[in-house]
Amino acid sequence: MNSRFIEKLTRMMKDKGVGAMMIAPSEELKFLAGFNVYLDERFQALFVTAEGESFYLCNILSKDEVEEGSGGAFPVFTWTDNQSFVDTTEKVLEKYGLKGKRAGVNSTVRAFNLIPIEKRTGIEFVDGKTWLEEIRMIKTPQEMENLRVASQISDDIFPKILSFIRPGLKEIDIRAEMERLFALEGVRLAGDIVASGPNSALPHYFGNQRVIERQDIIILDYGCSYGGMFSDVTRTVFVGGITPEQEKVYDIVRRANRAARMKVAEGAYIPDIDQAARGLIEAEGYGEYFTTRLGHGIGYITHEQPEIKATNQRKLEKGMAFSIEPGIYMAGKFGVRIEDIMMVGENGTEQLNNTSHEIVVL
Q1: How many CB atoms lie within 10 A of CB 82?
Q2: 178-205 residues labelled b (16+ CB within 10 A) or e (exposed)
């Protein structure tokens, strides 16, 4: 168990009048407890109480894996498939004095598990996702160094990806090559999007079967995890040529990216950073096609706090890391995105991705 995070979490729960935090299998469980397990339809979760006690509830099939992963750091309470998980859960929550209290839940707790527990125990469950993000938003020097390394690895494989891309490949072929290149570096591909042609206009495109054509546009959005810290970078490249409209849009996005990066500094007001990019894109007449937030925090999870958007009215602090990723997405035509990770480091602002923003035509 990560004592630094546990101490922060218990203080926060006491301040908010919450008796416990429920954390289902997830990257959130991994950063807090040091392990993760497969999440299926059966209920399971780590509970951390406001008094600093911890225990785990799961079906017996997960017991050995949880005990091994946790190193026996807390008791594990179980049931079988022929028993009611609600019965066991109610008894354990009563044992720890949590019935009728308030409890936070993380991002992966499922409603069909939560509702029967709530009905039986009278616990009021509340959103605890933001608490878990808050306690890890300010990175330690070691976490910042791991972010730098993860970003450097992503930068290093970029020219190798470019040398692989050619007409006739499917999007999934490019993804597989990314996976192979990261494996050679001893890390795993994370958060990948390969979106070609009109698919590039879909910010979170989820397909992979389109064939790359002789004149095409491709958004490459990818990263890896090193030492528990994630990287995330996006470059838009062209195959066989670039149209005047694509070149114009690319230049606008490139300038918007730079305008936002220039605003990043300790104490900077987050809405001002968003406006630097958004205002430029709007002035060029493409505001309606910038449909996403400007950026997201990064660390133990690819998307966490701080979100870089107009409604996040806080200032940047030392130790925060986040993306700057303006984009223009014209449905049915094409999209362009350029993403870099920025960090307010020990000695000032750092840009963690350093591959060129110049137009690449393969």
Answers
A1: 5
A2: beebbeeeebebbbbbbbbbbbbbebeb
Distance from first CA to last CA of the chain, Å, rounded?
Answer: 48
Whether residue 131 contacts residue 10, with contact meaning beta carbons closer than 8 Å, is answered with: no
Q: What is the mean pLDDT of the chain?
A: 96
Please give the pLDDT value at position 156. Answer: 97
Q: How many CB atoms lie within 10 A of CB 14?
A: 12
**pLDDT tens for each residue of 141-173:** 999 999 999 999 999 999 999 999 999 999 999
Residue 324 to residue 353: CA distance in whole angstroms: 11
Q: Which helix (H) or strand (E) holds 129?
A: helix 129-134
The per-residue pLDDT for 328 is 98
Report field, pTM of the whole predicted structure over 0.70: yes
**Token match 């591959």: residue?**
355
Side-chain-side CA neighbours of residue 227 (13 Å): 14
The set of residues, in sequence order, having a beta carbon less than 8 Å from that of 281 and lying 6+ positions away, is 252, 253, 256, 287, 289, 290, 326, 328
**Contacts with 103 (C-beta within 8 Å, 6 or more apart), sequence order:** 18, 19, 20, 21, 22, 47, 123, 124, 125, 126, 128
Cα Rg of the chain, angstroms: 23
Q: What is the maximum span of the chain, computed from C-alpha positions, in angstroms?
A: 68
Q: At what angle do helices 141-164 and 171-184 cross, to 10 degrees?
A: 130
State the Cα torsion 231-107-310-234 to the nearest 10°. 20
Cβ neighbours of 283 (radius 10 Å): 11
Residue carrying the six token digits 């922060």: 8
* Cis geometry, peptide bond prior to residue 306 (ω within 30 degrees of 0): yes
Cα–Cα dist 103/125, whole Å? 5
Structural domains of the chain sorted by starting position, each given as residue range(s) with its CATH number in brackets:
3-134 (3.40.350.10), 141-351 (3.90.230.10)
